[in-house]
From TrEMBL:
Role of this protein: Plays an essential role in the assembly of succinate dehydrogenase (SDH), an enzyme complex (also referred to as respiratory complex II) that is a component of both the tricarboxylic acid (TCA) cycle and the mitochondrial electron transport chain, and which couples the oxidation of succinate to fumarate with the reduction of ubiquinone (coenzyme Q) to ubiquinol. Promotes maturation of the iron-sulfur protein subunit of the SDH catalytic dimer, protecting it from the deleterious effects of oxidants. May act together with SDHAF1.
One cellular component term from this protein's GO annotations in UniProt: mitochondrial intermembrane space
Claim: Chaperone is one of the keywords in the record: yes
Keyword Transmembrane helix: no
Name of protein: Succinate dehydrogenase assembly factor 3
Native organism: Diatraea saccharalis
Assembly and oligomerization: Interacts with the iron-sulfur protein subunit within the SDH catalytic dimer.
């Protein structure tokens, strides 16, 4: 299993992601928080190589989002996120591609649909 240093790094990254999400619009924050929470739970018992990749990708995400949330960047761009390199899709499993598609659908729904979906997910828990 992983040592205390690894566990500490994971906790710090997890907390950082939620802090960065505070700057997002409410709908994106809720979706991002839920997605991050689910992904960290899903990878809780992964192997060393998967853990390394997982932490690197989430660290890159947190840094990228933090840069985008700076006030000056918000004034310039007024958008959040970036496009995925299509070559990355070649390395994804079918399950990951489906999950990415579902995330895309959730991100592009109207505010009303997002609220309804969140209410439905809250009732299921």
């Amino acid at each position: 299993m992983f040592g205390p240093e690894h566990v500490s790094r994971v906790r710090q990254l997890y907390k950082l992601i939620f802090r960065v999400h505070r700057a997002l619009p409410t709908e994106l924050r809720i979706m991002g928080d839920n997605y991050a929470r689910d992904e960290f739970k899903r990878h809780k018992n992964c192997n060393l190589e998967e853990s390394r990749i997982f932490l690197n990708e989430w660290t890159d995400y947190a840094i990228s989002l933090a840069k985008q949330m700076k006030p000056l960047q918000q004034v310039k761009r007024k958008t959040v996120g970036k496009y995925i390199d299509p070559q990355l899709l070649d390395h994804m499993t079918d399950e990951q591609i489906v999950q990415l598609y579902e995330l895309h659908k959730a991100a592009t729904q109207t505010n009303t649909e997002n609220i309804e979906m969140q209410e439905h997910n809250t009732k299921d828990k």
